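ZP: hey, is the magnesium ion complex queued? I don't see it on the tracker
AM: it wasn't, my bad. submitting now with these inputs:
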Amino acid sequence: MHVYKFGGASIATPERMKALLPIILAARKPLVVVVSAMGKTTNALEELARAACADKGRARMLADTLEQEHLSYAQSLMSADGFVAAKAALDELFTELHWAVDDADGARFDYSYDQIVCVGELLSTRMFSLLLQESGIENEWVDIRHIIRTDETWREGRVDLPYSTMQARTQLHPILDAGKLVLTQGFIGATANNQSVTLGREGSDYTAALLASMLGADDLSIWKDVAGLRNADPRLFPDTVQIPNITYAEVIEMAYYGAQVIHPKTIKPLHNAGIPLYVKCFLDPAERGTVIHANETQIAYPPIIVWKREQVLLQVTTLDFSFITEDALSFIYDTFARLRLHVNMIQNAAISFIACLDNQPEKIAALIAALEPMYKVRRNENVSLMTVRHYTPEILFGLTMNRTILLEQKTRTTVQVVVM
Ligand code: ASP
Ligand code: MG
């Protein structure tokens, strides 16, 4: 059993969606296909959700624009007959969307957001399913909200694994056993009261990983617009190399240091179930891509660089020259946690504590206000945090040449520098 996940970019246009057909035909079966919303639909729906709580007239206008876009997409995607079916399916979903807009209420924004934003995946998968059908690929469109159950943590639903696993097995195995492909949505689920919920932005990878582990898949393939993982962001560095093969442990480190590789929640279910993850390129399916696996054999990695920009370096110093003791540290750390300020790197010294974090001006102002009675806080803005795994002296020299190093930490495998 195999799971494929296609993201928004892979279905951003009707041409791209059609180009996925040969990939699906060539796939080993049985196959479960998880799809996210088309292109930037989720962003448009987020805006719609905000409008629905503030200005219903504007929200209806935005919904109409979205409907027109989906209709013209369907029109170029399908034959005339196919379009009739697609239009009926879209009509139904847009009617639901209008209800959700009417019902939206700023007093429970996160709940309203989920009822609206979930429509993106329902729309894209409906169209995809009809396209497959028209192309002779037998498939069953499954509403994942009947499978993935969560609590009522709106916009970040926490999945009830035992219930969802049972549903996944009882609902999907019969379809697969009948030789049909399962086509379903990522990113969404429902509560025990049948209210829609989303799992957090970019959550489709996570859904695909959950389904793969619940169904005991042989593997999961995530189809992206890039050819697998590279050792640095090619938009920032000229000569990056592809990483053909990498462990989950390494990927989770990369994600921790800020690399935007795979949604971090994706890794755990796959790692725990020992399921390999292939990162493949839908623009070039023959390209081997990257395989991520649990196997802890020695892999010779190239230096892996994660460059986080727009960082702030804070230096918290005691006013009265007293040591930064464990008590003081726990007070300072607690203040960070209370304000939900995630720290990317820390260092202690005798009378000061240094932290590097993403620039979040309001939260940092609140932090400084909370610490000020006892500490003096200095800051450097607009600094970068560079993390290099498997570093060499040459790489480090190249990265820091012509820059001022404000802070540096090394372990055997990892070096982190904060630079201006
Ligand atoms: N459509 C959702 C988003 O854009 C989920 C996903 O793409 O994974 O965040
Ligand atoms: Mg996406």
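AM: back. The two ends are 50 Å apart (CA to CA).
ZP: great, adding it to the tracker
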